[in-house]
Write a structure and sequence with these properties.
about 160 residues, alpha/beta, Nucleotidyltransferase, domain 5, 5 helices, 6-stranded mixed sheet
Length: about 160
């Protein structure tokens, strides 16, 4: 099940259990994990993209090792909320994850990369270090937004 609704995603999840967050780029996939209590998201790793089958196997392995119960995939919308060809590409990527049998949430990622880049600039990270960290930190930013909405529904719209 792939959804853009936090409410539908929450209903498809068991209460608690680790979630995995993905920031899917054309060259890399940033991966983040959260604890079973949905408290904090942490940047985990970066996968260099290759063929989808190989990417899927790496994701399967990571999901199994962490006993993840759901997947949050960053959805790149235009600033006005409209969709682009990149948005459609991520929707297709998420649909291709459905055979894993886990609920999948498409989460608005419009500001994730900018927020993470700003944080890394403030920390005076070198350009090379920023390039190494930005995608997995963006995955953590995306996942944190989703778990905040899951755990504090009164503060978020549950479309």
């Amino acid at each position: 099940m792939t959804t853009g609704s936090i409410l539908a995603f929450r209903e498809a999840l068991p209460m608690g259990g680790r979630l995995i967050g993905l920031d899917v780029g054309t060259k890399t996939i940033g991966i983040a994990l959260c604890d079973a209590g949905w408290t904090i998201a942490t940047a985990a790793e970066l996968i260099r993209r290759s063929k989808f089958a190989a990417d899927l196997e790496r994701l399967k392995s990571r999901i199994a090792a962490q006993d993840a119960k759901g997947i949050v995939v960053g959805l790149p919308l235009n600033l006005d909320g409209s969709e682009s060809p990149r948005t459609q590409s991520i929707r297709a990527f998420a649909r291709n994850l459905e055979p894993l049998g886990l609920p999948i949430l498409l989460w608005d990622e419009r500001w994730s990369t900018q927020a993470v880049t700003r944080t890394l600039l403030d920390a005076d990270a070198s350009r090379a270090r920023r390039a190494e960290l930005v995608d997995k930190m963006a995955a953590a930013y995306i996942l944190q937004g989703a778990i905040d909405a899951l755990t504090h529904p009164d503060a978020h719209s549950l479309e």
